[in-house]
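Here comes my example:
=====
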Amino acid sequence: MQNSATQILDYDDLRNAVKTIDKEIETLNILKKGLDATLSKALDLLQNTKGRIIITGMGKSGHIARKMAATFSSTGTVSFFVHPAEASHGDLGMISDDDVVIAISYSGESKELSDILMYAKRHNVPLIAITRNPESSLGKNSTLVLKLPDNGEACPLGLAPTSSTTATIVLGDVLAINLMHRRGFSASDFRQRHPGGKLGAILCKVSDIMHKGDAIPLLNDSAIMQEAFLVMSSKMLGCVGIVNNDGELIGIITDGDLRRKMSPSLITEKVVNVMSHNPKVINQDALIVDAVNIMNNTGRGITNLFVTENKKPVGVIHIHDCLKAGVA
């Protein structure tokens, strides 16, 4: 029996796949060409609100609204989803006068949105409509309309939301990314909202995992190797940093240096005769992934990296620390 991974792609499958993708690309190009000053007006409303961004929609539009609210919240814009049916049974109280509502309906005639529309009007809550029909009930009762392309669906029946939902998702991303730019949202801000998993680990700073204070293995450049052995054994990081009288890092001795220079007289040698000069260092505000790149791309690779500030060591990290953090 032929392995599924080696089977030849059926011509009809390929044709239908390409046709679907082309249709959705066509819709996105229409969306792109249709962008106008209304986008900036919508962004002004969202950026300047004193409250939250409330996003609502029914059916497929509701799924997109949830995704949009999650994207906004994770990128610095406080937002949450309100189900229009639940809103009619008490959840309207979740919407305050300081909020902005984004209501999504491709047709603009979702009857489930009517109570939210009326509530927004009654309380003067700005409402941004995302719809293909500005003349719809939703469009006419909104503060602004972000128009979706009226380009049909990729579905062969022209019924299942496909191209329209893709355009709506992309428009939501356009709003979120623009708000990130406007607010100067940084990688550090992003990490605070994503502390878990691989993404959180990648965005961790060196300062989050470095050994500091008395845990840093250091010796003055006047010391001898006997002292280096003792420090390396007690700190158990496989290295010792060598500093001058000004406290500046001038060298490093690692387990590898000991193996390469092992001799009967090594214990009495001065550390400056054994150390590697000008060791690789990193700033404590750098990302752990940057530290891993330095360690992996330095000659035959290194396992330790001192963290310095004005040439003075303030910490040290080992490749094992990066492994524990989930980066290396």
